[in-house]
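Transcobalamin-like C-terminal domain-containing protein: structure tokens wanted.
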Amino acid sequence: MMSPALLSAALLLLLLLPGGPVAGFGQARITVLVTNSVTNSPNHTYGTYVYYRGILLGGLRRLQDSDSNFTFTYKEDPNYGPFLQSVNGLAGSNEERTYWELLVNTTNNEIIRPDVGIGCYIPNDNDQIILNYKGY
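Answer:
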């Protein structure tokens, strides 16, 4: 059995290794589909990944850092966590009654609306994340 000090040192080493603490566990590849139900403008598809059991917000940040054609902003709500404000420069608006909807096309081709947002949703390998600009 490992001593607590040795275990702590091993965990610290994992955090400092390139690729982060989950580098040995692999990645979940995802695609991000940006759609607009309000104006029916052309869809845009991007590829990225999250680390094993990583959250969608990390994958969106990684995508934004690696592809200048994809940008997003979010707002941190104290009760509900982060939620999308804008994608590719288009923001949701209370005045225009629009928002960004999060949907997921799962590997069995079922489109779901997660009961959590971008800060808690954990994508599975080959999920298609749909960011849909929508009116209400």
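DSSP finds two helices and eight strands in the chain. The longest strand covers residues 27-36.

Cheers.
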